[in-house]
TrEMBL record, chain A:
Domain ABC transporter stretches: 6-243
Organism: Kribbella soli
GO biological process, one term: doxorubicin transport
Protein's recorded name: ATP-binding cassette domain-containing protein
Family per record: Belongs to the ABC transporter superfamily. Drug exporter-1 (DrugE1) (TC 3.A.1.105) family.
TrEMBL record, chain B:
Main subcellular location: membrane
Alphabetical list of PROSITE patterns matching this protein: ABC_TM2 (PS51012)
Positions of the ABC transmembrane type-2 domain: 21-251
Keywords per UniProt: Antibiotic resistance, Cell membrane, Membrane, Transmembrane, Transmembrane helix, Transport
Full protein name: Transport permease protein
Record's subcellular location: Cell membrane; Membrane
Pfam families from the UniProt entry: ABC2_membrane
Species of the source: Kribbella soli
Keyword Cell membrane: yes
Recorded family membership: Belongs to the ABC-2 integral membrane protein family.
Length: 326, 255
């Protein structure tokens, strides 16, 4: 992977204070690169800086400092070349609701310099590919959420970009529409060598879709690698204990901390998570200790490390808690 | 830029003819103004010093400009809708010409103004207005009204890009368009208006358009006044058009 389709170094972006909001440092020295033909997932809770990164890389917004090359062009010095090389699917639906699906695609193609004939042909091809063939001549405002999202992705592909940016592509979609879109993204990167940078706050999506993963927290990348490598970097198994009552005074934590081969205990409300050397021997020990102290338990589960554990490891909080805080 | 202007113009024009209710509304409103004000202020021609003898003939070019102003104040709402969805962001991350993005929408807006102008004249003439000036007089009126529509449409688009809020845009637009309508010769001959109104009107682009139109429609037009006022109007339109295109940058800095 000698060449990089995206190379961002030390991006900093601060939004000035508004009437209601204090100044916000959205990016705090974010560095990330994406190899050609790779699907990179930027994973993080809302407000971590994922969308801001995408906006800077697509030339929509400008970083206060730092530099970025996309498809070999500098986003500040050659924004027009960058724009010609990329497709951008914003977080919000980006089609014109008053126009038909076909009209949306044709207009986009023509803006990128395709002829009327080429645009029409390409538009029909994309409508077919995304299963919208019969709906091409209906106004977009009559489309379902899933259909609109597919059209959004098609709009990002009309001009055959080298790099596709997908900002939260499946947020708000039902599971079936989500799976459809996932398949299409996998196909595009696999067969056509398209580089994809997608942001997501779904752990499952990141796991399924991304060949490379970058975990974003507070405007920085805190961990990077393939999902498998990130998970493999955590030794042992993870144990989740669901208690009947929250561990308010921390006594459960202290109790379990005394057991051998168990560490990194994190308590969040009723759940307690810990890393153990071997799940099979740790579970009886944990249950025995809790029973001795007459602490009621709802459930205990052991699992191989998940991305959630990776996230916890690097940010000190679980993904769910980070999401609620955002 | 010209190709992009054409594409964007096509998009907005198609969208507007798909909303026939909206078209009907933009056409009925000026008709009501013309007939209402025509009746309401009928007597002002009897005030000593009022130049014209037919109020409906005096009023019609004024209502044309007022309509162009009022309708164009809403122009930016289409930009706000684009910003509320991701359409604006997708466009601005594409190689679309910023000038074309602005000009295409304004051209579509000016087409609405053109249709409104023709309709207001049709009603005015049906109600008894007569003009001695020839076809050039009508042409000047049409061009002036389209310039008013374009200038205030681009101001509205700029406000949209800066505020990104429908409520703020409409509030500002109302706040600006009423004084511009009344501090002018749209409804009242300056000869019978207070002095300060005449002073204010001198700096009012809507009044420049009204003066140019009335002069050009008169039996013996003062062509130097017509061309002077048209030039002011053109310069104003170009300046605000350029400024509003710059507003895309301000918007991009804030996203």
């Amino acid at each position: 992977m000698a060449t990089h389709a995206v190379e961002a170094v030390d991006l900093v972006k601060t939004y000035p204070a508004g009437r209601k909001n204090p100044p916000l440092r959205a990016l705090d020295g974010l560095t990330v690169s994406v190899g050609e033909g790779v699907v990179l997932g930027l994973l993080g809770p809302n407000g971590a800086g994922k969308s801001t990164t995408v906006k800077i890389l697509t030339t929509l917004s400008r970083a206060d400092s730092g530099s970025a090359l996309v498809a070999g062009y500098d986003v500040n010095r050659a924004p027009d070349q960058v724009r010609r090389s990329i497709g951008y699917v914003p977080q919000k639906s980006s089609s014109d609701p008053m126009a038909t699906g076909l009209e949306n695609l044709v207009l986009s193609g023509r803006i990128f310099g395709l002829s009327r004939q080429e645009s029409l042909q390409r538009a029909r091809e994309l409508l077919e590919r995304f299963g919208l063939g019969e709906h091409g001549s209906r106004p977009v405002k009559t489309y379902s959420g899933g259909m609109q999202r597919k059209l959004d992705v098609a709009l990002g592909l009309v001009h055959r970009p080298k790099v596709l940016f997908l900002d939260e592509p499946t947020t708000g979609l039902d599971p079936e529409a989500r799976a459809d879109l996932w398949n299409e993204v996998v196909r595009m990167s696999g067969q056509e060598g398209l580089t994809v940078l997608l942001t997501t706050h779904y752990l499952e999506e990141a796991d399924r879709l991304a060949g490379q993963l970058a975990i974003v927290d507070h405007g920085r990348i805190v961990a990077e690698g393939t999902p498998e490598a990130l998970k493999a970097s955590l030794r042992g198994d993870s144990v989740h204990v669901e208690l009947v009552d929250p561990d308010i005074d921390g006594s459960v934590r202290v109790l379990l901390g005394q057991l051998a081969g168990i560490d990194e205990i994190v308590v969040e409300g009723n759940t307690l998570r810990a890393r153990v050397d071997r799940g099979a021997t740790a579970v009886p020990a944990v249950l025995g200790a809790l029973e001795d102290m007459a602490i009621p338990v709802v459930a205990v589960t052991v699992s191989r490390p998940s991305l959630d554990d990776v996230y916890l490891q690097h940010t000190g909080r679980s993904f769910r808690v980070a999401e609620e805080a955002a | 830029m010209i190709a992009h202007t054409g594409l964007i113009f096509g998009r907005w024009t198609r969208a507007s003819y798909r909303q026939p209710a909206l078209i009907a509304f933009t056409l009925v409103q000026p008709a009501i103004w013309l007939l209402l004000f025509g009746q309401l202020f009928q007597g002002v021609v009897d005030i000593p010093g009022f130049g014209d003898s037919s109020y409906i003939a005096f009023l019609t070019p004024g209502i044309v400009m007022m309509t162009a102003l009022m309708t164009s104040g809403w122009s930016g709402t289409s930009f706000v809708q684009d910003m509320e969805r991701g359409v604006m962001d997708r466009m601005l991350a594409s190689p679309v010409s910023r000038g074309g993005l602005m000009a295409g929408q304004l051209l579509s807006n000016a087409t609405t103004t053109l249709i409104q102008t023709i309709l207001v004249f049709a009603i005015g003439i049906a109600a008894g207005a007569r003009y001695d000036g020839g076809s050039i007089g009508y042409l000047v009126t049409v061009v002036a009204s389209m310039l008013v529509g374009t200038a205030f449409g681009s101001l509205s688009n700029a406000v949209a890009l800066l505020t990104r809020q429908q409520e703020a845009l409409i509030g500002i637009s109302q706040f600006v368009s009423l004084p511009l309508t009344f501090m002018s010769s749209i409804m009242i001959d300056p000869a019978v208006a207070p002095h300060w109104v005449n002073v204010a009107a001198r700096y009012n682009p809507v009044d420049w358009a009204t003066i140019a139109a009335r002069q050009a429609l008169a039996a013996d037009p003062d062509w130097s006044s017509v061309s002077r006022h048209c030039l002011y109007l053109l310069a104003f339109t170009l300046i605000v058009g350029w400024l509003s295109t710059r507003a895309f940058r301000t918007y991009q800095r804030s996203v």
